[in-house]
Design a protein that fits this description.
There is one protein chain. This protein is globular. The protein has 402 residues and is of the alpha/beta class. An 8-stranded mixed sheet has the order 2-9-8-7-6-3-4-5, with helices on both faces. Strands 10-11-14-13 form a 4-stranded antiparallel sheet. A two-stranded parallel ribbon has the order 1-12. The N and C termini lie far apart (54 Å). The chain has 14 helices and 14 strands. The model has no long low-confidence stretch (mean pLDDT 94). It has 2 domains: 148 residues, Aspartate Aminotransferase, domain 1, CATH 3.90.1150; 243 residues, Type I PLP-dependent aspartate aminotransferase-like (Major domain) (Aspartate Aminotransferase, domain 2, 3-Layer(aba) Sandwich), CATH 3.40.640.
């Protein structure tokens, strides 16, 4: 008797869901007339193709014997030194930095290091489904904490952690996107960051800080990261591990990011890398290092900001012009997303189907919540990919459907 291959799947594989965002990108890509606010896609106009093309050619010719060989699982030493200078953290040891294949890769290794099936992770609600999916793939149970305009609410976090502790259900770590949060666009202010760290310290709870959009600030002043705050004001360098990405500033196809945290955390994460990716792409690491060393990065980031700020403003203007009474939305200081909330009788899952028929795409808010906390009257809109003219037209189409 032949056993179907599907019956041989592991329990994890059998229960694993497709990423809604990845699937919707396939549905909307290359559809004539489709205006998509669905993906977290950087604009192709932001890709420094000429500079990267020249550097890839130069690095392969001049450093090919090294970068075409197997590399270190924790990353290229040259690239690590460049990151230390760019991030202005020269005091870090090499053991406190790990190069990753995009930031989600680092988030996955962090989760694998701490999570056994059934363990609990506390996250923002709504939260980024890419990270939630990586964590659920490790068998984690996700518990969401409600947000206000400044992010996760510390009193609610304290209450949830206290309740779980009383039930003898310990939480393994806290996952946060404090800057231009995906999907809401919200940013934690300094007081909120301090309050969250205080709660985490009270419950002896490690923090994983995800910072993929930090460089994309259009308004306001830069705020100290949780990672740096824990090290300086709280004198606790082991509390926070940070994950950052080059996807949103150089191009997601490069699949390049890094994590920084205590060696006790990064060491096991490197072991997981040795068993899966072996090493990050050696040539891409070195090219990115040369891109930064030659002084291209800061100017390039300024150009991206000049490209995206008008698109954000165009979307905010269109929402103000076309959306019906009762609709509310965030006003992000940076990043790529605006979060829109409607009256409770609006079902955005149904709206999604109607919108696709009318060639405008978004992600329903229900896709961003852990199980048990789902809301169905919200949507995430991306403003980095479409032009200002298409943003106006797309928002108008949505408003007409509403």
């Amino acid at each position: 008797m032949i056993v179907p291959i599907e019956q041989r799947y592991s329990k994890t594989t059998a229960s694993m869901r497709h990423s809604f965002i990845r699937e919707i990108l396939k549905v909307t890509k290359d559809v004539p007339g489709m205006i998509s606010f669905a993906g977290g896609l950087p604009s192709p106009e932001s890709f420094p193709k000429e500079l990267l093309g020249g550097l890839f050619s130069q690095v392969i010719r001049e450093e090919g014997d090294e970068v075409l060989q197997y590399g270190n699982s924790d990353g290229d030493k040259v690239f690590k030194e460049t990151i230390k200078k760019f991030e202005e953290v020269p005091y870090l040891s090499d053991e406190e930095i790990m190069i990753t294949v995009g930031s989600t890769n680092g988030i996955y290794y962090f989760t694998r290091t701490l999570i056994d099936p059934g363990d609990i992770i506390v996250c923002e609600a709504p939260g980024f489904p890419g990270s939630l999916a990586a964590m659920e793939a490790c068998g984690a149970r996700m518990i969401g904490v409600e947000m206000d305009e400044y992010g996760m609410i510390p009193d609610l976090l304290h209450k949830i952690l206290g309740r779980l502790s009383q039930k003898n259900e310990p939480v393994k770590f806290l996952y946060l996107i404090p800057e231009f949060q995906n999907p809401s666009g919200r940013t934690m202010n300094l007081a909120r960051r301090r309050a969250i760290i205080q709660v985490a310290k009270e419950f002896d709870l490690p923090i994983l800080e995800d910072q993929p959009y930090r460089e994309l600030r259009y308004d306001g002043k830069r705020i100290i990261t949780l990672w740096e705050l824990a090290r300086t004001e709280f004198n606790d360098p082991k509390l926070v591990t940070i994950a950052k990405s080059f996807s949103k500033i150089l191009g997601p196809g490069l699949r390049l990011g890094f994590a920084s945290g205590p060696p006790e955390m990064l060491g096991p994460m490197v072991k997981w890398a040795q068993k899966s990716t072996v090493s990050p792409d050696c040539a891409t690491q070195r090219v990115t290092a040369r891109f930064i060393e030659k002084g291209y990065m800061r100017d390039h980031i300024s150009k991206i900001i000049d490209l995206y700020r008008p698109r954000r403003d165009a979307m905010l203007k269109a929402l103000e012009s076309y959306m019906p009474d009762g609709a509310q939305w965030t006003v992000p200081e940076g990043g790529m997303f605006i979060w829109v909330t409607f009256d409770k009788d609006i079902d955005t899952d149904r709206l999604f189907d109607l919108a696709i028929e009318n060639k405008v795409a978004f992600i329903p808010g229900s896709k961003f919540y852990p199980e048990g906390t789902i809301k169905t009257n919200e949507i995430r809109l991306n403003f980095s990919y479409a032009t200002e003219e298409l943003i106006d037209e797309g928002v108008q189409r949505l408003a007409q459907l509403l």
